[in-house]
Amino acid sequence: MTSTRGESLRAALTDMLRHQQGNHGWAVLHEGLAGVAAADGPTALDALLAEVWLKRPYITDAHAITLLGIAVQHHTLHDGGPSEVFDAKTPLPVRVRLLAGLLAERRAELTRLMAEHSNSYTGARRFLVPQLVIGAFAQARGIERVRLMDLGTSIGLLPRQLNVEPVFDRFAPDLHWHPAAPPFRRIPLEYVCGVDRPPLPTLEWVRACHGPSDYYERRFGEVLWSLDQAKTAGRYDVPLRPLDLLDVRALADALTSARINVATCTFVLYQYAEDVRRRVIDTVLGALDRPGLLLVMDPSHGLARMGCSVHAYVDGSTEALHVADVSDAHCMGDVTVRPGMGVLAG
Ligand SMILES: C[S@@+](CC[C@H](N)C(=O)[O-])C[C@H]1O[C@@H](n2cnc3c(N)ncnc32)[C@H](O)[C@@H]1O
């Protein structure tokens, strides 16, 4: 890779190889990609990325690398591509050769997947924090009807899990709150829905967003189990709509027409530049019914470390209340409650 953008992507690849979560599955593929990217002359990787950058000029390097891994895995799972590219026991030079061949032969298909889809990884334990925070907020404000929209919902897991107690009871013990967890309270949900970028992510795509490892197999098993529990609890039929959050007029319309007073947005906005992120947040704040709450969860250190932070915006105020920090974005580990929680549930 010789271009400036190629150099920047190579640096991002090196950073991601050091990421703690990489050990759970993607590191082997990223190592192979670094091998392909290290070639002197132009490679199939250069050609593929040039097309992706043309179609998605603002994609970050980290997202492009993640998406390429997902596209390769999707192809491997569905069309029988070379699974050795994910196998640490296969010598690195062999993996690099296989990957370079795959990128050359399947460039059109991989480019299409990367142009049309996003990383739609969804975690079965992420709803634990919104469940308790929104429950505490509704209780403190005496809110009798919550109308909730999950923004960037992927397959709509979070909206289906809220208030489903068997799911909460299974996962909550693995998340330790400091100094203490707010009590579980049923959220008085009158209406709940989710939106995501068109085309709406499928379960197959979300499967490919999980890294190739036992760790991610278990996480995906938790997703499937949660969906089953939602069916049993009669909470499966949640409206999911295609909507691009960057189309702020459509976003405002969707929120006002459904009289939404609580919005959640987990692991979505960190992908965008600060001004874009701000525009989406301001639009939501201007469109929520009062008393309104927007809850945002994002990785705390870009994608460099494992934790995430939770911020809330209340009653249209643009002041971000720092509610909590979670040690692991998959919501296993520790939650440290921050002063914003007191304001919210005060
Ligand atoms: C990493 S997933 C997180 C899914 C889910 N919120 C969770 O935390 O488990 C990010 C999701 O945001 C969606 N997304 C990203 N940009 C979007 C946009 N402009 N409009 C709507 N959805 C978007 C992606 O399609 C993807 O499904």
UniProtKB/TrEMBL annotation:
The lineage of its organism: Bacteria, Bacillati, Actinomycetota, Actinomycetes, Kitasatosporales. This is DUF2332 domain-containing protein. It comes from the Bacteria.
